[in-house]
Amino acid sequence: MVFEKTLSDLVKGIRASKRDTPLFISSCIAEIKSEINSTDLDVKSNALLKLTFLQMMGYNMSYASFATIEVMSSPSFSQKRIGYLAASQAFTQDTDVILLATNTLKKELRGAVDPGMGGVYEAGLAINCLSNIVTEELARELLQDITNLTMHPQPYLRKKAILCLLKMFMKYPQALRLTFPRIQECLLKDANASVTSCAVNVITELSDKNPRNYLVLAPSFFALLTNSSNNWMLIKVVKLLGSLVPEEPRLARKLLEPLAEIVRNTQAKSLLYESVYTITLCLPYCRKADGNMPSSVPSIVALCAETLKSFVEEADQNLKYLGLMGFGSLRMSHPKVLSAPGYRPLILECFSDEDVTIRTRALDLVIGLATRKNLTDLVTQLLHHVDMATGSYKIDLVERIIEICSSEKYALVTDFCWYMDVLVILARTKGIDGHATGGNNLGPLVSAQMMDVTLRVLPVRSYAVKRMIGILLEGGGKKHDEQHGTTSTFGFKSKS
């Protein structure tokens, strides 16, 4: 060991050789290839440690697979740890020698349950490694050993074993049916909160594919929701219960008050958002058999709206985005929630945000801001943003203006001459022909709106004809886009 470079020497050498780093690393790899074949496990494990570091820099270490198995089998814990780390990083589903690790892993896992139970940390290493390299064959061979460790006296091993089972299910799906009762027992009866949390994590991940399979656990998760104080576990519980609501709508009304209580009391932003978002998922299913909503719904909706408003007001872009997402979900059951005072300036302010994802989310909400009283002012502000917008975002703005004004057969429009003026402004707007962005050409949409309003509203016909004649005279029915050098057709047709 005196003459071999240590990992520290390797790192220092790489930092010192800035100009010829590849040459230095090549010489080190040549030394490692010699050392990795040594019969001395100290030399072999030191070489493997250096090679594992180089593998993180992108260098291949597949030629050291057999040496990795040898170091994993070392009686020394420090060497064993190096071997398991190397296997976790370098072994893939196609590694030839991976099946040779079966007996080593089995020995470590069983060592933790033998009389004396002295191999707890060795078993922990084996579980960590198995979760990264598991194949269908390894899962089939080691399933019983991992399941046995879910009953180990040490919570350290129980929680690792439960989490490892999830990785085994992905490679060997039949294992789920064989071991699910044990996971359920950990969820319901384990006295250690960290073990229960791991069981919740596993079931939450599994429920993403088919929530219906886990409806039987709804009472257990509801008990955790009302009794647990572990925020990270509650986040998973809340998400899982939210996914179960479409499968069992009666659950929605039962969840409202416990979730509202969390919203009122928690200071954790992540749990706060998940609770509000799950409430928005529950609200569409809360209607009673007589068609009425529970009496608590209006206050809970107001609570959610105020909470989401506080998110949008945050300087943090991530929280702002989550707030806008939450409002979008809340609008599904309460479309008029944003028409209350105080929300319109907040949402419109988001249109000036530098982040296009924030602007796009705000655009999805703008239709909920419109009323007969504020339509003119709202559209005027949106037209201002159309002038400054570019690309597909400009297309989206124009589409949303038309959607707001034409919704429910123009129910919000009180002055159709004004709306005709808006359409003329849009018709003359550069960049909505789709040529620059490869998007939709909105010319036909604008012209169709003009003709629809003209045909539907008799008093506006003469004014509409004058405005359309003005557009036709500008370019024979075509408008030249000076900015992009293109021509967009608005499709006006004369009727004989």
From TrEMBL:
Keywords: Membrane, Protein transport, Repeat, Transport. Gene3D superfamilies: Leucine-rich Repeat Variant. Residues 477-496 are annotated as: Disordered. The keyword Phosphoprotein does not apply. It comes from the Eukaryota. Residues 25-469 form the Clathrin/coatomer adaptor adaptin-like N-terminal domain. Residues 485-496 have a biased composition (Polar residues). InterPro entries: AP3_complex_dsu, ARM-like, ARM-type_fold, Clathrin/coatomer_adapt-like_N. One of its GO terms (biological process) is protein targeting to vacuole. Pfam families: Adaptin_N. One of its GO terms (cellular component) is endosome membrane. It is found in: Endomembrane system. Its main location: membrane. Belongs to the adaptor complexes large subunit family. This is Clathrin/coatomer adaptor adaptin-like N-terminal domain-containing protein.
